Amino acid sequence: MTGNISFRFLSNPFLKAFFEKLRPSYKLPTEKHTMPKVLIPAEYVRVKKSVDDALKSSDFLSISSDGWTDVNDTPIINFIIHAPKPYLFSSIDTTGKAHSGDYICEKISEVFACKKKKRKIVFIRKLKKLGRQRLFLWSPITPQI
After folding, report:
1. Pairing label, strands 121-130, 133-141
2. What percentage of the chain has pLDDT greater than the value 70?
3. I need a surface site. Which of 1, 10, 59, 111 has the fewest CB within 10 A?
4. Is the dihedral of CA 82, 88, 90, 93 positive or negative?
5. Distance (Å, whole) CA 55 – CA 29
6. Does pLDDT of 65 surpass 60?
7. Which residues of 48-77 are buried (b: 16+ CB within 10 A; e: fewer)?
8. Residue 107's closest CA among 136, 67, 138, 70?
9. What distance in Å separates the CA atoms of residue 70 and residue 44, rounded to the nearest whole number?
10. Do 117 and 142 form a contact (C-beta atoms < 8 A)?
11. How far apart (Å, rounded) are the C-alpha atoms in residues 67 and 78?
12. Are 40 and 48 in contact (CB under 8 A)?
């Protein structure tokens, strides 16, 4: 479910009464079986296939990443592949890892290795923040994939 609504919402007696009046033949999915074991896995497979197809058919890919700390103080880095539409590729827990340039490049290379694209990659890395100005380093490489 979206909007941070718990699956327990499906057991709410008012929701059940609402759907019973709205359409008596409709059966709500169950919170313990239908949602987590049937509907969500099926949706995951459908969305993953759609994203994989879009990435395979794209002539060019680019990656962006961002890091932050979540509400549980877990450091996270996500990777988004643009083809040109953006797709969230992965989010990784980086507990105990330094967010160095080498580490980020290693993780970006792993993302490209997963997509098996043989083409030139340009890494753009923010080196310094100077007020409103930012200095970037561009380094073209040919991946060994």
Report:
1. antiparallel
2. 75
3. 59
4. positive
5. 32
6. yes
7. eeebeeebeebeebebebeeeeeeeeeeeb
8. 67
9. 23
10. no
11. 6
12. no
Give the Cβ contact number of residue 9 at 10 Å: 13
Tally Cβ neighbours within 10 Å of residue 143. 13
Task: Report which DSSP code applies to 104.
Answer: H
* First-residue to last-residue Cα distance in the chain: 38
Residues with Cβ within 8 Å of residue 62, at least 6 apart in sequence:
81, 82, 83, 84
Tokens of 86: 């953006």
Question: Which one, of 45, 46, 39, lies nearest residue 10 by Cα?
Answer: 39
**Among 7-21, 72-86, 110-124, where is mean pLDDT lowest?**
110-124
Specify the higher pLDDT residue, 40 or 111: 40
The answer to whether the CB of 77 falls within 8 A of the CB of 94 is: yes
* Tokens matching residue 107: 């993780």
Which residue in this structure is represented by tokens 């792993």? 110
